[in-house]
């Protein structure tokens, strides 16, 4: 397979069709995607002319903001009764995850059934659990949510509905980020949909600053996925 066309088996397992990420806007890459059945993702700078993408059947899906926080800019918050730990019951975390992610780019993709977009997030959380890359968030010893990471990348933040909109996420996220800095990382990175203003404001308040932005386009060749493999 050409370097500019990369299979994404983590999405194929959810959607039951071949899935790919395209890493180039060159004509040869876009023309190659025209000849292969499956679902495609491409991420491009916002100022890139989208006409070639539109002409090849791509459609705009999302804009991802990529904030970065250096350790010297980080704000650590503490509050009585709040703690984070890698000790948790997996099923309890999975239950929260099943209700926490409803507005991702695959939920907005009109070719992807919502139940398969849900499955994608659930499998992602299970993978992070298997790799011991989840921190549980506790409020007075009650599980309030979870924080997913990989290396110095903050990946997922899920809160139980009982604890949302109570000003707790900021302190919980701060403590999780501190644990990552304690591992020796000099900076942390995350990726946030431009539609998720609340999350963007949360990370900005902790010292994260916008580093990069990319626009995300999808394309589907062939029938829509009907179920998971």
UniProtKB/TrEMBL annotation:
Superkingdom per UniProt: Bacteria
Pfam families from the UniProt entry: Acetyltransf_1 (PF00583)
PROSITE patterns: GNAT
InterPro entries per the UniProt record, alphabetical: Acyl_CoA_acyltransferase, GNAT_dom
Gene3D superfamilies found in the cross-reference section: 3.40.630.30
N-acetyltransferase domain ranges (all copies): 80-223
SUPFAM superfamilies assigned: Acyl-CoA N-acyltransferases (Nat) (SSF55729)
Name of the molecule in the record: GNAT family N-acetyltransferase
Organism, as annotated: Tigheibacillus halophilus
